[in-house]
Write a structure and sequence with these properties.
Blueprint lengths: L1 H27 L5 H10 L8 H11 L6 H13 L13 H36 L4 H15 L2 H15 L18 H11 L1 H27 L2 H8 L4 H21 L2 H16 L4 H10 L3 H29 L7
Helix pairs in contact: 1-14, 2-3, 5-6, 5-9, 5-12, 6-9, 7-9, 7-12, 9-11, 9-12, 11-14, 12-13, 12-14, 13-14
């Protein structure tokens, strides 16, 4: 098992480095030079003592843009390994500092979404499999397909129209209310939670359908296995058959599916957080990317790549936890 984990770690590091190099090459190959824009803005500042060319040369040297793509990437990588991803052009502070300020909003939203998704999707998927081709199965399937099919912006717009404009229950956007600064710490926490309801519900609706369908499909396959028919023939109750025998084997493919949920939620949070203007990593990254903030764009894409590799590694380890037969020597 140890050798297997070491091999997966090595492979994950290699894939992360290769992915980061692809992103770096793509950004370096863009037809528009954002460095020139930044240099022009700084040179036009009345307080600036440097010319446009001096600013351009300095920025090219700082961000390794005065050398080839491969040397430039390894220069960026050397700084990144030391935790230095440069200074955000848009926010004017180090990238990692801005990241530490906003990441916890995204973490809270995604953890709550993940927990709610698990407690809704898996029981409903099992129920649909147990009552195959019944009205319950069809209703759950329609609900799941709606969640899979609806685009993020469409669902978020509908929710905002109904619950914010028509009913007035929630604010259209933002993380805090207008009287946030005058509230007690407990009231501030409740206010933030109140403003997170619609974003969490949006992410949950978009992700619950896929896991629900996946659970149903795998449960149907397990329920048709010989050992399940044997367990029923022995006179075991249906609850014991489902919970003790069928569900444990259903978890094996579910672990593989859930390994992609966390990175996909952080990636999908970019759209949801932007629509609701929640200052998490998704919204902040979107604002930085559309303004040509190359240091922040490189950091965010690398963060998603590394997060994906960590999720896959955890999934491989969980295989052995869920089913002891799945062992790597």
């Amino acid at each position: 098992m140890r050798n297997f984990i070491l091999r997966r770690l090595f492979l994950g590091v290699f894939i992360s480095l290769f992915g980061a190099m692809v992103i770096y090459t793509t950004i370096r190959s863009l037809p528009t030079s954002y460095v020139e824009t930044i240099a022009r803005q700084r040179a036009s500042n009345p307080l600036s003592t440097k010319t446009y060319q001096e600013w351009l040369d300095q920025l090219n040297q700082v961000y390794k843009l005065d050398v080839g793509i491969v040397p430039g990437f390894f220069g960026w990588l050397e700084n990144a390994i030391q935790g230095d991803f440069g200074e955000s052009w848009h926010y004017g502070i180090p990238v990692t500092e801005k990241f530490s300020q906003v990441i916890w909003y995204s973490v809270i939203i995604n953890i709550i979404t993940f927990i709610v998704q698990i407690f809704i999707s898996i029981p409903l998927g099992i129920l649909a499999a147990r009552k195959q081709y019944s009205k319950t199965d069809y209703a759950i399937t329609v609900f799941a397909l709606m969640g899979i099919s609806l685009p993020t912006f469409f669902l978020a717009t509908i929710l905002k129209y109904v619950f914010s404009i028509q009913l007035g229950w929630f604010d259209l956007y933002g993380l805090t209310g207008r009287f946030f600064n005058s509230m007690t710490p407990f009231e501030q926490a409740m206010d933030i939670g109140y403003h997170m309801v619609l974003p969490i519900f949006t992410l949950m609706m978009l992700s619950v359908g896929g896991l629900m369908r996946y659970t149903r499909t795998n449960m149907l396959e397990v329920l048709n296995s010989d050992y399940i028919r044997t367990a029923r023939a022995k006179g075991l109750s249906e609850r014991v058959v489902i919970n003790k025998h069928a569900f444990r084997n259903t978890l094996i493919p579910l672990v593989s599916y859930m390994s992609y949920i966390i990175p996909s939620m952080f990636g999908g949070a970019l759209i949801t957080e932007t629509l609701f203007q929640i200052p998490g990593i998704g919204y902040i990254s979107f604002q930085a990317i559309i303004r040509g903030d190359i240091p922040f764009a490189m950091f965010y894409t690398t963060f998603i790549i590394v997060l994906t590799q960590i999720s896959l590694l955890l999934a491989d380890i969980m295989y052995a936890v869920v089913d002891p037969r799945v062992r790597a020597n």
